[in-house]
Amino acid sequence: MRGATLAKWAALATAVALAATACGGGGDSGGGGADGVVTSSWGDPQNPLEPANTNEVQGGKVLSMIFRNLVQYDPKTGAAKNLLAEKITTTDSTNFTIAVKAGWTFSNGEPVTAKSFVDAWNYGAHLKNNQKNASFFGAIEGYDQVHPEKGAPTAATMSGLKVVDGQTFTVKLSQKFSTFPGTLGYVAFAPLPKAFFDDHAGWLSKPIGNGPYTIDSYSKGSQMQLKRWDGYPGADKAQNGGITLKVYTDNNTAYTDLTAGNLDLVDDVPASQLKNVSADLGDRYINTPAGIIQTLGFPFYDPAWNTPNGAKLRQGLSMAINREQITETIFQKTRTPAQDWTSPVLGESGGFKDVCGSFCKYDAAEAKKLVAEGGGIPGGTMTISYNADTGSHKEWVDAVCNSINNALGDNKACVGNPVGTFADFRGQVSTQKMKGPFRAGWQMDYPLIQNFLQPLYYTNASSNDGKWSNPQFDKLVNQANAETDIAKAVQTFQQAEEVLRDDMGAIPLWYQNGSAGYSERVSNVTLNPFSVPVYDQIKVS
Predict the structure, then answer these.
(1) Closest Cα to residue 527, out of 443, 422, 450?
(2) How confident is the model at residue 131 (pLDDT cuts 50, 70, 90)?
(3) Is the pLDDT of residue 13 over 50?
(4) Which of 147, 173, 171 is nearest to 161 (CA)?
(5) Which one, 72, 232, 283, 448, has the greatest CB density within 10 A?
(6) What confidence score (pLDDT) does residue 215 get?
């Protein structure tokens, strides 16, 4: 099965992650109080905002505002609670009956029904629709028929989904999955209105959801305006009049606008401003742990980077990176040097462990030796590609290249390769256009080791952008997924992670904190465990 099924215990997770510069936040703020509009920095999404086709942060921010699911995750504790689900029941952990609460509607007035979920999930899973999150439906019976690994689909819908009546549907899984209900807060499982299917192009131009906000307008490269939906029936009603997401090609410009009073929120403080942010913002600066790791990916689809001795080359490059120095000088301690491919938020019992060992420690002599044994850098010079519009990536990419060049004694070994926008960069990465290493990051969907490994490194997984593939890794992931004992499952995933280390399928760089800054005109600003602002709770003075 493409991407394999989720681990049986995955639903124990309690949270889901889920540009021309623009100035003048006060110009369209709509005044203060409950009707005041919050202006926030943003970047254009990679793809149209279909729930099953969005697996990156910028699009995810919007979907978190315009959709609500069967299950919702508490923005502070991450606890999973039923929202649109009246109840989810099972007697055998394979067959589930889901009752959808009556009274919920989409913002166009359509009722949210059982069919809203079944049709959305079938659409998301089907191969012809080319949805990036299709593998999240892989546990449902019949997924293999609508999304085969090879060849054409042999069915239009998954046999495991059945509408019973207006507000009830059943789900049959291909294997026991006792905590399946807890996964249903992920954005891919959002319901879709009939309008999505009746006028798909029209819906894509102005998505209709069932969350506390509606999309009022979107101008690519400029901004998206979202307005509070006063008819929203949920308890988490928006505490402001709307959110205007302004596209910035440079986060430093966004930060300047924030400090000048022209922008209300920057949810990724640029590295170059970290030394100033406490003095500039005081207690309006947020720096909090998050389930995020930054890595360097490799184009394994390029034969030059997929050679018999390539593991030594990649391990040597990893040892040529002085993580301690870079996180101290560039990131002002808002990053922590990585020692595995997961995140400290998992804790030891969740799988966080020093798996990388010496390969993640700076050692110039050993790095130079391994790079030589690995055949040297292809062509003598490698480029590290990154998006130039957000995140101040230039500073750390230059620092990584300087570290590699110094370790190897070659000032032409590594150079940065900026790509204009996040959308353009992700477009090149996801269509296998990289010629060398590239910036990669992962913001957890839920806090489990499985989520840090399987979506990124399992053969043909949804976010395996570098196309790394290892049969032993896949085998161990499958074994872990079939394990009902959590401790044993974690140990098996760690064994898979050791396979990843031995081939250095990606270079772990550092774990990232969530950072944000906000203006004096807003309050009650927080980040959820995935470093995304809780937009609906922001208040405007």
Answers:
(1) 443
(2) very high
(3) no
(4) 171
(5) 448
(6) 98
Neighbours of 93 (CB within 10 A): 15
Cβ neighbourhood burial of 79 (10 Å; 0-12, 13-18, 19+): exposed
Phi-psi region of 261 (alpha: psi -120 to 50; beta: other; left: phi over 0): left
The Cα–Cα gap between 482 and 484 comes to: 6
Cβ-in-10-Å burial (0-12, 13-18, 19+) of 508 comes to: buried
Distance CA 321, CA 340 (A): 15
Q: Alpha-carbon distance 471 to 383, whole Å?
A: 29
Share of the chain above pLDDT 70, in %: 92
CB of 125 within 8 A of CB of 143? yes
Q: What is the dihedral of CA 503, 504, 506, 509, to 10 degrees?
A: 170
Q: Where are the beta strands (DSSP E) in 236-332?
A: 242-247, 265-266, 285-297
What residues have CB less than 8 Å from 145, skipping those under 6 apart?
A: 153, 154, 155, 158, 159
Give the model confidence (pLDDT) of 466-497 as tens digits.
999 999 999 998 888 777 677 888 899 999 99
What is the pLDDT confidence band of residue 16, given thresholds at 50, 70 and 90?
Answer: very low
Nearest to 446 by CA among 2, 8, 12: 12
Single out the residue of 186, 189, 226, 231 nearest to residue 210, CA to CA: 231
